[in-house]
UniProtKB/TrEMBL annotation:
It comes from the Bacteria. Residues 362-819 form the TonB-dependent receptor-like beta-barrel domain. PANTHER family: FERRICHROME IRON RECEPTOR-RELATED, TONB-DEPENDENT OUTER MEMBRANE RECEPTOR. The keyword Signal applies. It is found in: Cell outer membrane. This is TonB-dependent receptor. Its main location: membrane. Keywords: Cell outer membrane, Ion transport, Iron, Iron transport, Membrane, Receptor, Signal, TonB box, Transmembrane, Transmembrane beta strand, Transport. The keyword Transmembrane applies. Pfam families: CarbopepD_reg_2 (PF13715), Plug (PF07715), TonB_dep_Rec_b-barrel (PF00593). InterPro entries: Beta-barrel_TonB, Beta-barrel_TonB_sf, CarboxyPept-like_regulatory, Plug_dom, TonB-dep_rcpt-like. SUPFAM superfamilies: Carboxypeptidase regulatory domain-like, Porins. Residues 119-228 form the TonB-dependent receptor plug domain.
Length: 856
């Protein structure tokens, strides 16, 4: 009720302002450099006022003068001399402003703190990738983007089972459990995307991607313990423009992108964007003769911009993306000798069934799976964003609705045997969110942001999650030599259907202030109060297999699957905050030190829980919230006009780390959620950009990261210790305190360079260029519990581009990825049932192609 009252009050205030302010007097123009190339994100300011705008990707801008004649425009772009243009009358046509270059590095403008500012001045470790940079590097989704930002890790065995981490923290490594929240926030145009599957889809018409590291709960609506992606799309413009892109490559790769924008009326502009990607599969199914793991993605985004007054703009955005690959298949990467009896070892199992793998070399890229792989997903939504300048700041209200539909099929035994015949966790998700915030100047030397946020989520099975056994299941599940296991048809068609609903409500009040104590010393404080409520209704029912009343046979069947039902309703509240001291040593050196206390909300098991004689152990359904203490110090420097060097040292301690454990209940083949007592991640990050001249530039980034369990006494057994017994008693857990956290390489780095020269191509003015990028990482564990076998060796890949680029007109270039054709794994994961074999997610082999782009 209180939130409704607040929202009505704010809406009334916005309406009052929008109906009383006067009309526009627009000046249109384009900002270019001395080589006649448009400059994107140039700052255009009316001298003596706070009114400003920035140029778009074609260098074009529109600004309402708001002032009586005469007036002066100030045009700024880092690395270029500031220009001042005085007007005594309104121009009747678009103006052209040429900025002379200075021999210094272009700075990057960001909006993560809800205002336009230079990244080098912000006391937050942040990486910025421009939309054009991402496109040229072929980073059309987050998985590709991680090669440009080494602090980012993404692991995906399919879109639902996607882990996105920053500095090795964020989400549970391995199979996803929907009962816990991600620790890395993913925002697009201010809208929080709750499903990590969104990170596997293609970017659509992206303007800029900002990756913030460390807790960010006092700047963003949804709490984030490890960092946030702040993605901004290219906005609708009153200046007409369009761009078209088409790429062709080997393995049947085709990618098309298009965007068009312009004015529909004096106060309404629109933008429509499309992206589509297709590629043949990179694995061969030797039984069907088909290639699998293809790409089949489409996305569309539309925007309407309404500017009722010079102080208010309203944007309605609608987007829809879909993915229909015959994909995400994994190959058998190896076999481990477990502690089980000889007859339960993988090689003995498949030998007794008269089966052999199609290849023992995973990089032959051959499979024979008998269940088709399908990863169909639809994701989309609508948002309404209202910005209104009030006083010395801006009030923003963002309302959004989003959906995600998931339709998978997996072969989780990774063989041509009918073991797990079906594994289909079809789901539907919807979310509703509302954020209202005010960012501006509160006092003469105090700026900041304050806001309220609410989100509701409904996740349900559609209509069931299904797991069903085939004729060979008995041999993989057999735990004794009892001949009853060989009963004909006992497990054929035997499975379970799970019906569940998860209802989540979260609300928060958050804020951050920046107190300018002196010109050089700033004190930043942030505070957040959060409320979380989660309700689940879980029901798992077995079906099929041999219909019998034989109690011995029924007992064997229950060792594989069993019925279970429970309901849980939890609520929790949290306070968190941060404190940063920022000191500007000189014009070229900024330093900062931060302490942040954060949390990840309470979790609920949504994959089944252990049972005892009284049924499900309800106490194990609730997972404690993570408590995070984070420290970092950093320096951002511009030692020379053409160089930036930044360094951050960090330490993060997490109590009650949310992770997966195992149970002696064999029906919980995915394990269940629990808390590790404490983990710690510490290290440093360095990044640098250098412009040798207007023809040659370099960028480099390096991350050193150590992550380990300080205390984890109930960890699951590694694959090789499955079946371990102590004094004749089976063991299902071990103390791995001091062990390595999964997914973290000690060293990750990227290095790139760009050599260019002005020229003309088919009458278009631009630059011929040669660019090389490299990405390297050291070895890392791919198992929640350290294992001798599930470790991925370090690797390096090299990508390159050569061609001609122009801001207007035709650009064309050749590109290649993984130029040295390096074989490497992105993830290793045990097969269901822990028979000893494990599968690998393979990195792509060498790919190459041609891209044509035309900008109007």
């Amino acid at each position: 009720m209180k939130n409704n009252t607040l929202q009505n009050l704010i809406s009334s205030l916005i309406l009052l302002i929008t109906t009383t302010l006067f009309g526009q007097a627009d000046v249109e123009g384009i900002v270019k450099d001395k080589n006649n190339q448009p400059l994107e994100l140039a700052n255009v300011l009316i001298k003596g006022t706070k009114y400003n705008t920035v140029s778009d990707n074609n260098g074009k801008f529109t600004i309402d003068t708001r002032e009586k004649l005469p007036f002066t425009l100030i045009v700024q772009y880092v690395g270029h001399q500031t220009a001042e243009v005085r007007f005594t009358a309104l121009p009747t046509s678009p103006i052209e402003i040429i900025l002379k270059s200075e021999n210094q590095l272009n700075d990057v403008v960001i909006t993560s703190r809800r205002r336009i500012e230079k990244a080098q001045n912000v006391p937050i470790p942040i990486s910025v990738v421009g939309g054009r940079q991402a496109e040229q590097a072929g980073a059309f989704n987050v998985n590709r983007l991680k090669e440009l930002v080494p602090s980012v890790q993404l692991y995906s065995s399919n879109p639902r089972n996607t882990t996105i981490n920053i500095r090795g923290l964020g989400s549970t490594f391995g199979l996803t459990n929907d009962g816990i929240d991600p620790g890395v926030g993913f925002y697009v145009d201010g809208v929080y995307y709750a499903r990590p599957a969104a990170t596997t889809l293609d970017f659509v018409d992206v303007d800029q991607i900002e990756v913030l590291r460390g807790p960010q709960g006092t700047l963003f609506g949804k709490n984030t313990t490890a960092g946030a992606f702040n993605v901004t799309s290219r906005k609708a413009s009153f200046t007409s423009g369009a761009n078209f892109e088409l790429s062709y490559g080997n393995y049947g790769f085709i990618q098309a992108k298009a965007s068009i924008t312009g004015a529909l009326s004096k106060k309404i502009a629109a933008r429509l964007s499309f992206s589509g990607t297709q590629r043949d599969g990179l694995l061969e199914n030797v039984v069907t003769g088909k290639s699998v793991n293809d790409l089949n993605n489409q996305g569309v985004r539309g925007q309407l911009l309404y500017t009722p007054t010079e102080n208010t703009d309203i944007t309605l955005a609608v987007d829809y993306s879909k993915q229909r690959p015959d994909g995400y298949a994994q190959v058998v990467a190896g076999v481990v000798q477990t502690n089980r009896a000889a007859y339960r070892q993988f090689h003995n199992i498949i030998s007794s069934l008269g089966y052999s793998l199609p290849s023992t070399n995973p990089f032959d890229r051959k499979i024979d799976h008998d269940t088709p792989w399908r990863s169909g997903q639809d994701l989309g939504g609508a948002s309404l964003n209202i910005n209104s300048k009030i006083g010395n700041g801006k009030l923003t209200a963002t309302s959004a609705w989003r959906f995600w539909n998931w339709d998978p099929s997996n072969d989780r035994d990774f063989t041509g045997l009918s073991v797990l015949r079906l594994s289909q966790a079809t789901s539907k998700h919807q979310q509703w969110s509302q954020e209202i915030r005010y960012a501006g100047t509160f006092l003469s030397k105090v700026t900041g942001v304050i806001g309220v946020f609410g989100i509701g989520q409904d996740l349900k099975t559609d209509p069931y999650h299904i797991e069903e056994s085939g004729a060979a299941q008995w041999r993989f599940s057999q735990d004794s030599t009892d001949p009853l296991w060989q009963t004909a048809g006992l497990f054929n068609g035997y499975g379970f259907k799970t019906k569940s609903t998860l209802n989540t409500v979260s609300g928060a009040i958050f804020g951050q202030t920046d107190w300018e104590i002196t010109d050089k010393l700033h004190l930043l404080t942030g505070l957040r109060y959060n409320y979380d409520s989660k309700k689940i209704d879980y029901s798992r029912t077995t079906y099929g297999g041999l219909q019998t009343t034989n109690t011995a046979l029924l007992a064997i069947k229950k060792k594989v699957y069993s019925d279970q039902a429970f309901k849980v309703d939890v609520e929790d509240t949290n306070f968190s905050g941060n404190l940063t001291v920022a000191y500007k040593v000189s014009e070229k050196i900024n330093t900062f030190a931060t302490f942040a206390n954060s949390y990840k909300p309470v979790g609920i098991n949504l994959g089944g829980i252990p049972s005892d004689a009284n049924g499900p152990i309800i106490a194990l359904a609730k997972i404690k919230p993570e408590k995070v203490n984070h420290y970092e110090i950093g320096i951002k420097s511009t030692p020379f006009n053409n160089t930036t060097i930044n360094l951050t040292v960090f330490n993060t301690d997490i109590d009650n780390y949310q992770t997966l454990v195992q149970s002696e209940d064999p029906t919980l083949n995915r394990g269940y959620l629990a808390n590790a007592e404490k983990v710690r991640v510490r290290g440093f990050e360095a990044d640098s950009r250098i412009t040798i001249s207007q023809y040659l530039s370099f960028n480099a980034a390096l991350t050193y990261n150590e992550g380990h369990y300080v205390s984890f006494k109930n960890a699951p057994l590694p694959l090789e210790e499955t079946g371990l017994k102590v004094n004749g008693v089976s063991v299902f857990s071990k103390d791995v305190s001091g062990g390595q956290l999964p997914g973290i390489s000690k060293w990750i780095g990227s290095l790139g360079g760009d050599l260019s020269k002005e020229g003309q191509f088919f009458g278009n003015q631009g630059r011929f260029f040669l660019a090389i990028d490299s990405y390297s990482r050291s070895s890392f564990s791919s198992s929640a519990t350290p294992s001798k076998y599930l470790n991925i060796q370090g690797y390096s890949i090299f990508n390159g581009r050569i061609g001609f680029r122009a801001s207007e007109g035709l650009s064309v270039y050749l590109w290649g990825r993984n130029l040295l054709d390096k074989n490497y794994f992105e993830q290793l994961l045990p097969a269901a049932g822990n028979a000893g074999h494990y599968a690998g997610v393979l990195g792509d082999q060498r790919t190459f192609g041609l891209t044509l782009r035309y900008n109007l």
